[in-house]
Write a structure and sequence with these properties.
Distance between the termini of chain B: 157 Å
CATH class of the largest domain in chain B: Alpha Beta
Mean pLDDT of chain A: 88
Largest sheet of chain B: 7 strands, mixed
Helix content of chain B: 25-40%
Largest interface: A-B, 31 and 41 residues
Shape of chain B: elongated
CATH topology of the largest domain in chain B: Beta-lactamase
CATH architecture of the largest domain in chain B: 3-Layer(aba) Sandwich
Shape of chain A: rod-shaped
Distance between the termini of chain A: 84 Å
Strand content of chain B: 15-25%
CATH superfamily of the largest domain in chain B: DD-peptidase/beta-lactamase superfamily
Number of helices of chain B: 19
Number of domains of chain B: 2
Low-confidence stretches of chain B: none
Oligomer: heterodimer
Low-confidence stretches of chain A: none
């Protein structure tokens, strides 16, 4: 009986230790992934901002005028279709 | 004879006692030491242990974004790093410098020069991009990277370049707003930097813990500014600056029904210096609209009245003579006074209205008071108490001298005429959206007070339309659209005293379409080097900006019959 109790306590203690080790290991992996995510997010953000810059009115209108030879439509010629 | 027995040597019990006692000494000593450590060295040792086990992470939150009314980015922060060198800890100088030269956009020679010139610690590069950061970070724990230091920083990026920079202002690399909206809304855009404890692994990596979950409280600010409208205004202003070389240039676009500012362009464009709110000036003839609207509203004059021009030379007071050189009429109607921009007419009408009444209307229009648009450094202009006005002061206020006002005040006053008589609270910030989902709506249309009767505003619209159709504002005409507005060419006060003939402020303020006004636009060119007038310089800029806005918002012509007439004329 005594042996069984000691054995169970030992198993429980082992389980707790293993659980702590596993939590720490996963935490470390998550920490690493989070750093990677942060760097990728930052890289993505730069790309998004570059995209926003290229889609900005100044760049678009300059491109439209210089490369596509477009010009702004006078307001009288705009036809607005409403639902 | 046998040697005498040692009673202790052969006494097993005694020897066991001794052994037991000896065995007890180390645990006892350990126990005492532990007790000492637990009680007397507790603080020192627990701090040491904390440092070994935990990392203290800086709460690092990206500054909130500033966006236009349609959600286009105007200002956004990105994480960057600065790379520094601590010479004392560098193991292999040559290898470390070569590594940095390979990865940073900096020649080896320059890094070596910095190494020689600077002290023990110096920064090699700032605003390092994520890819380079990862490369440097990967060697930090290796001999090659010893002595290198990566300090987190922030970079504020404006995707549209300098567009609206005067309104947005600047934020520094430590996430702090320095000017403009960045400064005014610093609390909403940023979060206090605090420290958090996180478990650390052997090589310094952070071990994730649920307590590390981010709690964001920063907000994103949506402005009432429309990036495209702002672009039209800035492009038109840049062209005007090129053509007329003014000291300053300002364009303000407001939605008269709500008071929202759609665009506010300044030249020169410097961060946090939005002239639309900070510049105070004597408006000149654009102010005639206010004095004449006040006189009509109070009943001091009516649209049928004819004003005597006194032979176009009016002696307001002894030795103060006003002259109208732009016409040869002996009498003018109110509409003609506006169309011909007669100072004599406006001065006489102001006298008819009286000091007290004009002062009351000026205050009701919001002149001499801050608009509460909440912009840093907003000027309130200046309106002296009417008790101090002389007859000359009153007459000159009638045509826009002796009163200082800001562009936002004037554009709001014209909007009151456009929207049927209500002074609306001008807004620059539409809403603030916080990360936790809370939305703080700022730009609810808010009527401050009724300034004019609706019937007066209708009369004023007709008069201002007449100015554009027949008078000094002809160059603001847009085929198919009713335009109401007034030109202004004001002399500036010279340093020597009095008004300088060659220093001018030229302006045009108006709204379109007349039937349902969508945009009130004010154009100001302060002290253009090339001599010009409100009607020749500012009115065409109004037209250019208004056409862009009407196209962009798809506003249908309110006077299509005029469009047909114009087409027929062309044919």
């Amino acid at each position: 009986m005594k042996f069984i109790v000691v054995f169970l306590v030992a198993v429980f203690a082992f389980g707790v230790v293993m659980m702590r080790i596993e939590i720490n290991r996963s935490g470390r992996a998550i920490g690493k992934l989070q750093t990677e995510v942060a760097v990728k997010e930052a890289r993505n953000q730069y790309l998004e901002l570059e995209n926003a810059r290229l889609a900005g009115p100044e760049i678009v209108s300059q491109f439209a005028q210089e490369h596509l030879h477009l010009r702004r439509t006078p307001p009288q010629k705009v036809i607005v279709l409403e639902d | 004879m046998l040697p005498k027995k040692n009673p202790f040597a052969f006494n097993a019990k005694a020897r066991m006692k001794l052994c037991g006692f000896l065995c007890l000494i180390p645990p006892l000593a350990i126990g005492i030491r532990l007790f000492y450590m637990q009680t007397f060295l507790y603080d020192e040792l627990s701090n040491k242990a904390d440092r070994a086990i935990y990392n203290f992470l800086k709460e690092d939150r990206l500054r909130g974004q500033i966006l236009d009314v349609n959600g286009n980015y105007l200002a956004e922060s990105v994480r960057t790093h600065s790379c520094g060198i601590n010479k004392r800890y560098v193991k292999d100088k040559e290898a470390t410098i070569s590594f940095l030269a390979e990865n940073l956009p900096m020649p080896k020679r320059e890094i070596e020069k910095l190494w020689k010139e600077k002290g023990n610690f110096f920064f090699v590069a700032k605003k390092i991009k994520p890819d380079v950061y990862m490369k440097i970070r990967s060697v930090l724990r290796k001999p090659l990277g010893q002595g290198l230091d990566l300090t987190p920083e922030y970079e504020r990026i404006h995707p549209y370049g300098t567009s609206a920079l005067d309104i947005l202002g600047e934020a520094n690399s430590k996430n702090k707003g320095l000017s403009g909206l960045e400064l005014m809304y610093n609390d909403e855009l940023s979060q206090d930097i605090s420290k958090r404890r996180a478990k650390r692994a052997r090589r310094g990596e952070v071990i994730y813990d649920r307590s590390l979950k981010e709690e964001k409280s920063v907000g994103n600010i949506y402005l009432t500014i429309d990036a495209l409208a702002q672009h039209y205004a800035e492009a038109a202003l840049d062209k005007a600056v090129q053509d007329y070389e003014p000291e300053r240039g300002i364009i303000v676009v407001q939605e008269p029904s709500t008071g929202r500012i759609l665009a506010a362009a300044s030249s020169p464009r410097e961060d946090g210096q939005a002239l639309a709110f900070q510049f105070a000036y004597e408006p000149g003839s654009t102010f005639k609209t206010i004095s004449i609207a006040s006189a009509l509203d109070s009943g001091a004059v009516s649209t049928e009245d004819m004003i005597d021009m006194d032979g176009r030379k009016w002696e307001v007071a002894p030795r103060v003579v006003l002259q109208d050189k732009q016409h040869k009429e002996e009498e003018l109607s109110i509409a003609d006074i506006m169309a011909l921009s007669s100072n004599i007419g406006a001065g006489k009408i102001a006298l008819e209205l009286g000091s007290k009444n004009l002062f009351y209307y000026m205050k009701a229009f919001g002149f001499g008071t801050k608009t509460d648009i909440n912009f840093n450094g907003e000027s309130k202009g200046s309106v002296a108490p009417y008790s101090k006005w002389t007859k000359v002061d009153l007459a000159s206020k009638g045509y826009g001298y002796g009163v200082l006002l800001t562009p936002i005040q004037l554009v709001s006053a014209y909007s009151a005429i456009a929207n049927g008589g209500y002074l609306m609270q001008p807004h620059l910030v539409d809403r603030i959206e916080y990360a936790n989902g809370k939305v703080d709506k700022k730009a609810k249309p808010q009527k401050i007070r009724r300034v004019l009767k609706e019937s007066t505003t209708e009369q004023m619209k007709e008069i201002l339309e007449y100015v554009v159709v027949e008078g000094s504002g002809k160059r603001a005409q847009i085929p198919g659209y009713g335009v109401a507005g007034k030109t202004g060419t004001a002399e500036k006060v010279s340093k020597e005293g009095g008004y300088a003939k060659r220093l001018h402020v030229v302006s045009f303020c108006g709204f379109t379409p007349i039937k349902d006004p969508r945009f009130t636009i004010l154009i100001i060119l302060d002290n253009p080097k090339k001599y010009t007038f409100g009607g020749t310089a500012a009115a065409p800029i109004f037209k250019q900006v208004a056409e862009g806005l009407l196209t962009m918002y798809g506003v249908a012509p309110d006077q299509p019959e005029k469009l047909v007439q114009a087409d027929a004329k062309k044919k």
